[in-house]
Amino acid sequence: MCGIIGYIGKQKAAAIILEGLKRLEYRGYDSAGIALLQDGHFEVAKKAGRVEGLIKGTGAQKLAGTTGIGHTRWATHGGVTDANAHPHISSDGRIALIHNGVIENYAHIKKFLLTKGFTFKSETDTEALCNLIAYHYQKEPAAPDSSRFLESVRKTLRHIEGTYGIAVLCTDCPAEIVAARKGSPLILGVGDGEYMLASDVSAIISRTQNVVYLKDGEIVHMTAKNFSITTLGAEDVSPVVDTITWKIEDSELNGYAHFMEKEIFEQPAALENTMRGRFSEDGSTAQFGGLNVSAVDLRQVDRFHFLACGSAWHACLVAEHLIERFARVPVEVDYASEFRYRNMPLGNGTLFFTVSQSGETIDTLAALREAKRKGYKVLAIANVVGSTIAREADGGVYQHVGPEIGVASTKAFTSQLLVGAMLALYLGRMRDMSFSDGVEYVKALKGAPDLVRQALEAAPQIKAIAQRYAHYHDFLFLGRLALFPVALEGALKLKEISYIHAEGYPAAEMKHGPIALISEQCPSVFFVPSGEMFNKVVSSMQEIKARKGKIIAIATASCDLPAGLADEVIRIPECHEAVLPIVATVPVQLLSYYIAEELKRDVDKPRNLAKSVTVE
Ligand code: AGP
């Protein structure tokens, strides 16, 4: 999950590339580097650590040149060292390369190149790719009608197994960049007399809103005057230029301490954007413009199968509850990475959904492709417009919550919960849900943003609780039914940004083992809804209390908790069961955020993580 960027135009490239790298750093931040073409040679600055460190430690911003590439790394092959940082330069000094992905046959390539006199300075798979391009460039005859540089890249990529998003420079071609993608995202920015490349839009949106989403197997050849796209087989591709609708300030902090904090507090607006224009005229059901599956065909579906990773997988578990509850259709949920190899028996009436904020998660993309290989329709719920998963799906739902920069998913997660609730309504009203129940359900969904606003009002109380509980090393998160996946999400949030061990369980399951963990040193976070589960959850809380376990209760307003049972009580508003998972998520997002802040963690760029996992 690295970030790559390239620039060719009239401006000094260094500042543009470094600014873009800062916006890509959430994709990976183990090291950073840039390479510029200047008078037939490369000016290179690269260093382990953050972009800021590259600037302060190498003076990268002073490098001259109007053609260049930049990279921010999430280490796959080779440790976090200066030598392993990208860009890599071929041992003959002619080729500079940056890469996002994994070259699976790099060892074989490296062995071959060593016999051809190439040398290596790093432990990375990328350097093998760089030297292989140089090898083909040496062998490629200079041909007047086509670029020797472009053809050497094309020839090289035909030998590559694995995934790549690359940008390449050649010392003999001072005003050219060649780039290509297979399995890793790459976008071409079409500016005013300049062209850019980036892993995602946030890196270039300050300079252009006109972009071309490159597809797997495509190669782009850029000069200062124009660009062309061809396939690995050298067929021409007619580019489609899209216009990005969101603005640069959507990807800026705007006064918040962290993007995660901003995105937590953006959730009311984000939910409104997700719902906008998606309820029927009569107000009794949801409607989706891009599903590309007719109501008649949807009625024939006898099973829905959701595929996702991480928080998106938790959102699928909530959707499972709601679709089975309101549409009475069986739902299966699989980790995308597991589905690919499970080879499970599947019926003919199954419709697949993939859920992915980034739309680039390689496990989810691979699962989508596996389901399509089996002949199934696959729809996508995604946030990033034009992302690979969104484009390869047969249809789907965009979340429209704007860029989510914080590595820990927040507004995208609750938006996914909302889309799942809207799907349950849509499918339910196709089956047994009555008009009046549909109207009530729609009203509840429309009220969700205000209920989230109310839940956010507990932020100061939650911050105080976080400061009291930040020193614990283990937490249990416990919820039942549709709140069990929210317990999983709360545990994930805490783990990934505070580095504290946390586990989510169905509340009743806790006594089948995890209760052994309970002591005064292992607090439990309980979701306590009013209604049929209230007494059952209170019993589980009693079991914890009897063993001196501290309890943080997230309880709906009307719950009458026994005095002294919970050490902390965070109230959330009563609401429709389809909205409760959304509202209940807010306190655990805030709890994990404030604990991480108390521990002075790098909240937006937690260690070992990256925003979009584009390597398997
Ligand atoms: C969520 O907080 C994590 N950052 C991670 O689990 C994420 O949800 C997962 O990698 C899936 O990402 P996607 O939604 O972009 O596919």
Describe what this molecule looks like in 3D.
- This protein has three domains: 245 residues, 4-Layer Sandwich (Glutamine Phosphoribosylpyrophosphate, subunit 1, domain 1); 194 residues, Rossmann fold (3-Layer(aba) Sandwich), CATH 3.40.50.10490; 167 residues, Rossmann fold (3-Layer(aba) Sandwich), CATH 3.40.50.10490.
- 35% of the residues lie in helices and 22% in strands.
- The protein contains 18 helices and 25 strands.
- The strands form four sheets. Strands 3-2-4-1-10-9-11-15 form an eight-stranded antiparallel sheet, covered by helices on one side. Strands 5-6-7-8-12-13-14 form a seven-stranded antiparallel sheet, covered by helices on one side.
- Helix 10 runs parallel beside helix 11 and helix 15 crosses helix 18.
- The protein is globular and about 80 Å long.
- The N and C termini lie close together (10 Å).
- The structure holds 2-deoxy-2-amino glucitol-6-phosphate (AGP).
- 2-deoxy-2-amino glucitol-6-phosphate binds next to helix 9.
